[in-house]
UniProtKB/TrEMBL annotation:
Domain Protein kinase positions: 98-380
Compositionally biased residues, Pro residues: 45-59
Name this polypeptide is given: VRK serine/threonine kinase 3
SUPFAM superfamilies on file: Protein kinase-like (PK-like)
An example Gene Ontology molecular-function term: ATP binding
Compositional bias per record (Low complexity), positions renumbered to this chain: 60-71, 78-88
The species this protein was found in: Falco tinnunculus (Common kestrel)
């Protein structure tokens, strides 16, 4: 053991050598899982030692390298899902059948396909999206979220209670296992990701479009948070627009969703209690970087980074995403100085008052503090009213199907 750490009653990461708090289970610097510390047993009362039994005869098979470990074997995680061929038919738990179309996306949280009903239970012309991943992948977490917190009836009740005409929570219409290797979820058609629209050459959003999308996402986050979850990975890759109906803005991608308030009791803030840096590095919150469970402020912080990127095209750490410590240091620096962050990103352009107020309010939130969602929405609704627009109008953006 490191004598310096022994004096501080702390310990070092065996992978990168950084000093750690005794309660950490993951290293916030390199992300490595830390070995459990041996428990100190109380000293037994002095008794004469029992006679030692004679050692058994040693055989070559009894060498230390060949001895079985006293720890339970850890189940190896499956690799990424291998794409299935177009035309394959998958049966969900409710008896519905789904035929795969073309592969739309492939990433760390699974595969996304176009799909059609193959059982006759749904209109043939209606389009669906089918998300597929290995059975024990992050999609299991996503399935739990939809079963617990995003049932269609719950969503409709919330919309009526809050007088919201549209709420961008995906409608999960089926789920199941395939070939005992894959898990899948079926959604009503999600459309195109906002990131794919930006990649078309748009790169930046106009204030009107950005503010419309933010208000709609604040509705989604308020719904999710009231149902005990946080999203955990707000990014343009998880925001969908429907080219055929630009009033539809959907927040998808719940593979990093975290139940921050199980049974109404908020989890405690404990750095190093979870795998650090989970989610999209550019936009995740400082809580996620440090291995603490993400809370409501985490989602709002990530949304602020996204809005800034959509309006300016970059963040101060966008070009250094391979240097985790640098990203964390810059996020910590600018969290304490929002005005400096905005001046750096907007340069000679005028800074929207709504964005500055939003970031200042969000960065000041406590870990367990409930945000004032309506006050945050009003920051963006007021400039939209001056533009004679509503957040629930068609999003002011040009896109192709």
């Amino acid at each position: 053991p490191c004598p310096r750490c022994a004096r501080r009653r702390s310990r070092c990461c065996p992978w990168c050598g950084r000093g750690l708090e005794p309660t950490f289970r993951f290293c916030p610097a390199c992300g490595g899982r830390l070995p459990a510390e041996p428990r100190e047993e109380p000293a037994p009362a002095e008794q004469p030692p029992p006679p030692s039994p004679p050692p058994p005869p040693r055989s070559p098979a009894a060498s230390p390298a060949a001895r079985p470990s006293s720890r339970s074997p850890r189940k190896a995680r499956s690799g990424p899902a291998v794409p299935l061929p177009a035309g394959a038919v998958l049966a969900d738990r409710g008896g519905g059948q789904w035929r795969l179309g073309r592969l739309l996306e492939q990433g760390g949280c699974g595969l996304l396909y176009e799909a059609q009903s193959a059982s006759g239970a749904c209109p043939q012309k209606q389009r669906y999206s089918l998300k597929l991943d290995v059975k024990d992948g992050k999609i299991y977490n996503e399935q739990n979220f939809f079963q617990r917190a995003a049932k269609a009836g719950t969503v409709e009740k919330w919309k009526k209670w809050h007088s919201v005409p549209l709420l961008g929570i995906p409608s999960c219409v089926g789920f199941g296992l395939h070939a005992d290797s894959y898990r899948f979820l079926v959604f009503s058609d999600l459309g195109r990701t906002l990131q794919s629209v930006l990649n078309d050459g748009l790169h930046l959003l106009k204030e009107k479009a950005a503010f419309q999308i933010v208000v709609r996402l604040l509705d989604c986050l308020e719904y999710i948070h009231e149902n005990e979850y946080v999203h955990g990975d707000i990014t343009a890759e998880n925001i969908y627009l429907n080219p055929a109906d630009l009033t539809q803005v959907t927040l998808a991608g719940y593979c990093f969703a975290f139940r921050y308030c199980p049974g109404g009791k908020h989890v405690a803030h404990r750095e190093g209690s979870r795998t650090p840096h989970e989610g999209t590095m550019e936009f995740i919150s400082l809580d996620s970087h440090k291995g603490a469970g993400p809370s409501r402020r985490s989602d709002l912080e990530s949304l602020g980074y996204c809005l800034l990127k959509w309006l300016c095209g970059f963040l101060p750490w966008s070009d250094e995403l391979d240097k985790v410590e640098t990203v964390v240091e810059k996020k910590e620096k600018y969290r304490a100085d929002v005005k400096c962050l905005l001046q750096l990103c907007f340069r000679q352009r005028s800074i929207p008052d709504a964005l500055q107020s939003y970031l200042q309010q969000v960065m000041a939130l406590g870990y367990e503090e409930k945000p004032d969602y309506e006050a945050l929405r009003q920051l963006f609704k007021k400039p939209l009213e001056k533009m004679k627009a509503s957040a629930y109008d068609s999003v002011d953006i040009k896109m192709v199907p």
